[in-house]
Every structure is written in C-alpha cells, then in structure tokens.
Amino acid sequence: MANLMSDDMDEISRYVSDVPPAHYTVKIESFSLLMKNSVDRFESGEFEAGGYKWKLVLHPLGNKGKNGNDHISLYLAIAGTDSLQPSWEVFVVYRLFLLDQKNDNYLTVEDGKWKPRRFRGMKKEWGFDKYISLKEFNESSNGYLVDDVCVFGAEVFVCKEHFKGGKGECLSMIKSPITYKHIWKIENFSKLDAESCESKIFNAGDQKWKIRVYPTGRGSGEGSHLSLFVALADPAALHPATKIYAEVTLRLQDQVHSKHHSGKVSYWFSASNPEVGGFRFVLLSNFRQPNMGYLVRDICIVEAEVNVIGVANAFS
C-alpha cells in the first residue's frame, strides 16, 4: 500500500505508494542527454483531468529562478486556458510521482495539508522547486534512474472552479473528523475460491464502505502477494463530480504476537476512482507462515480505518 514518510518543512509530504498515477505518466529515455545538452525546461504533452487540460513541467537541473539548484524541479501547469471564460480560477489538489523501477512503487510528493492550489491567469503553474535532489535521483540503489530511463507522473483533482456564468463545486473540509474502524474476521481462508471477497458494508463519514481482499493477489501482486483494498460500497450512487477525501489505514493482524502489518494513505475517492489499497500488501509466503501469526487456524483478521476529511460536491 504505502509507507508514509512526511517532511513537515514547507508543508510537503513525501511517501512511497504502490498505486500508480491515475492521470498521466511521462517516460524519459536518455535522461542524461537533457543535462548534457543543457535542457533547462521540458514540458510534457497535454492531458485531461477534472475537465481541464494539464501538462507536467520538468527542470532536469533544477529551477534556478526558484533556488532549485542540485535538485530536480517538477511542476503541474494548466494548459488550454484561452478557451476558458474571463476571470477563471481553478482550485486543485494534486500529487506528483517518480517511479522506483526496482521496487515497482512510486515516490509521491504532495502539499502536506492538501491545501487546494489556485490556478489563474497570473499563476498557471504549481509544484515543487526541490522535488528530489540530484544525488538521491542518480543513486542507482534507489531505482529512480535505471539504464538512463526515468518515469514521472501526475494526479490532478479539481476541488472548485469559478468563472462568470460557469459551474463549480464546493469543497467542505471537516474540522473534527471521526475515525471509523471496521474489523473483518475471515474464516476458512484457505477454502476461498473466488478471485476476491468482500466484507460486510460499514458506514464512515456519511458513506458506505467495504473491505476487499484478493487471496492470491491482484495486478502486480497476482500470485505472489495478498492484495487488500478499501472501496466505496456503491460508487455508482455518487454524483460524477463528487469527491471524498479520506485517510485510510489497512491492517492485517498478527494474532500470535498482538501486532499488525499495516499501510496508510490519503486518497480522493469518486465514482471513477472508488478504491485504494495495496496490490502487494503482504507476501503470500509470509502470510502463510504459522510463526507470522497472520493466518491462525485458517482465520485471518483485517481492519480498515476510514477518516473522511473533506467532501467536494458540484453546484451550479
């Protein structure tokens, strides 16, 4: 799922996630030639998210005007604004990705408090002047640059938009969110013959949820890992523009040592993105070992904590 690492400085959050970027990826071959040829700025092709067009902007040697020396600078820029109405403003939360090709996961960087950023005529670009240091990026053991190839990505979620005569949405953040926990005891685990199985539906933050487990893995974890997810129970019931920002923790209990294996991530749920979790939550070889305590008398116990922090709804 995700190993959370935070950097409170500058309110930037950095963590590792198994979940790939939902909206766009950029693969760069012969990356060193960008530096050799003094390419100061590279702009990706346009992609669409949230009804708008965007592009990634990369400074391979750092954005010198923003004190990005010895770092890679990475930004999200809004594109195609000539077609927007006058006095447009778009409020966005986003995260930017860098693929670790050795471990098949992503260094993910976002604003620490997920404060919406205001894109407008005078400010069409937001991002990170010091996305990653060149030293860390070039270190072969980190897997970010392999055979001179690297992969960046982006997710973009529109929270609110404003322009004369237009439509928008309202993002309501919850001042004192309540954390809801659901415990699921799965018996006769070895006899599960379906690709996946689901818990009973539980409530959290005015929404219905469920836990979904793939006993023999899904996606990149198929055949080698147990995959575990939290999902909206009825995403089709949501308005297409509704988004739910929630902090999710998944746990697999160690029934022998009173411990647990866990992962935590923050995610924007919607009708089109209804679930989050870990394709490679735990190795099946570890899960099945009796001394690990995850599977005892053919019973495993999983937990999900869901903390709904904000909800965005459309308005006219």
Description:
The protein has 316 residues and is mainly beta. Helices cover 5% and strands 54% of the residues. It contains three helices and 22 strands. The strands form four sheets. Strands 1, 2, 3, 8, 9, 10 and 12 form a seven-stranded antiparallel beta sheet that branches. Strands 4, 5, 6, 7 and 11 form a five-stranded antiparallel beta sheet that branches. The longest helix is centred in the first third of the chain and has 6 residues, at 31-36. The two termini are 37 Å apart. Pfam families: MATH_2 (PF22486). Residues 21-156, 179-306 form the MATH domain. It comes from Citrullus colocynthis (colocynth).
Short account of what is shown:
Residues 21-156, 179-306 form the MATH domain. This protein is mostly beta strands.
Main traits of this protein?
316 residues, mainly beta, 5-stranded antiparallel β-sheet, globular, MATH domain-containing protein, TRAF-like, MATH/TRAF_dom
